[in-house]
Amino acid sequence: MASHRRAKQPGRARVTVLTSAAAAAVALSAQAANAAPSEKPSKNEVKSRVDKLYEEAEQATEKFNGAKEKQEKLQKQISALQDSVARGQKELNELRDGIGSMATAQYRSGGLDPSLQLFLSSDPDSYLDKASALDQLSSQQVETLKKIQAKQRELAQERAEATGKLRDLAATRTELGRKKKEVQAKLAEAQKLLNSLTAAEKAALAAEQDRASRSSSERVDLGNDTSATGRAAAAFAAARTKLGTPYVYGATGPSSFDCSGLTSWAYAQAGVSIPRTSESQSAIGTRIYSTSDLQVGDLVFFFNDLHHVGLYAGNGQILHAPRTGTVVRYESMSTIGGPFMFGVRV
Question: Is 308 annotated as catalytic?
Answer without folding.
Answer: yes
